[in-house]
C-alpha cells in the first residue's frame, strides 16, 4: 500500500512512521475535536503522517451495560467534522456487513477488528467499498496466517490494505507482542503495531478490561526498532473517565514526549 493513496494525509515524504491515533470511542463532538486538534499539532510539528482514529460504535464489549456509542450516524458525522476541520484522514472500525457502506460515506479507512478478521463476508464488504482496509491481526492468529486475510482484500481488486498487530493472547488475561511477526507481515502488507491494545489485560473478573499503560513507550520503541511502517495508539485527555478502554490508553499530555522519542529512534534506524 502506498501511503499517499490515503486522502488528506500529510508529511508522506518525511521518511517517518505514520500514526493512527485518537480516542477508543467517539464520546461526543467536543472531546473528539479537542483530541484531534492536539494530535494534529504534535504530528505536524514532528512531520508524522497522521490519521485520526475513533470508533463510531463498540460492539466487542465484555458486559451488556458497557458503553457502545452515542449513535452510529451521530458519531460518523463527528468523524467527518474532524476530517473537515483539521484536513486529516480518518479511520473507524466496522463490525457488520452493513457497516461497511455506511462508514465508507464518512471515513477514509475501514478497520476490521481482530476478533472478526476471519469473517470473509465482512472483509470483502470493506474491500468492495474501495476504501483502504486495516486488518487487525487476530489475537489467536499467527503472523503468517494474516496473509490470507490480505489476499481476500486484494482479490476484490483493492490493493490498499494494511495489517495491524495488536498482540497475541498469553493465557486468559494477558497479551504479548511477538516482534518476529513484524518482518513476516511486512513481506506482504504495510504493517502497523497497535501499541495500546497490545497492552490490554482482557477477561478480568470485573468484566472491565485492564491494561499496562506504563509499558506503552517500551512496546512502541521496540516496534520502531523492529521496522514497523506505522503505529496505532489510543489517547484521551482523561483516560480514567473514558467510556471505553481507559485502562490502556495513553494520556494526551504524554503524547508529544513519546512521539519525539520515537521519531529520534526512527531517524537512527533510517541511518543504518
Automatic annotation (TrEMBL):
Tell me which InterPro entries the record gives: Aldolase_TIM, DAHP1/KDSA, KDO8P_synthase
**The EC number(s) this enzyme carries:** 2.5.1.55
Tell me which residues make up the DAHP synthetase I/KDSA domain.
8-265
Against Pfam families, the record matches this protein to:
DAHP_synth_1
Matches recorded under Gene3D superfamilies: Aldolase class I
Keyword field contains Cytoplasm: yes
Residue spans crossing the bilayer = none
Q: In which pathway does it act?
A: Bacterial outer membrane biogenesis; lipopolysaccharide biosynthesis; Carbohydrate biosynthesis; 3-deoxy-D-manno-octulosonate biosynthesis; 3-deoxy-D-manno-octulosonate from D-ribulose 5-phosphate: step 2/3
Spell out the subcellular localization from the entry.
Answer: Cytoplasm
List GO molecular-function terms, semicolon-separated.
Answer: 3-deoxy-8-phosphooctulonate synthase activity
Instruction: Please indicate if the UniProt record lists Acyltransferase as a keyword.
Output: no
Q: Where does this protein chiefly localize?
A: cytoplasm
Task: Give the signal peptide range.
Answer: none
Catalysed transformations (reactions): D-arabinose 5-phosphate + phosphoenolpyruvate + H2O = 3-deoxy-alpha-D-manno-2-octulosonate-8-phosphate + phosphate
> Which UniProt keywords are listed?
Cytoplasm, Transferase
- PANTHER family with a match to the protein in the record: PHOSPHO-2-DEHYDRO-3-DEOXYHEPTONATE ALDOLASE
Q: Which family does it belong to?
A: Belongs to the KdsA family.
Q: What is this protein called?
A: 3-deoxy-8-phosphooctulonate synthase
- Species source reads Autumnicola edwardsiae
Highest lineage ranks of the organism?
Bacteria, Pseudomonadati, Bacteroidota, Flavobacteriia, Flavobacteriales
Gene name, per UniProt, is kdsA
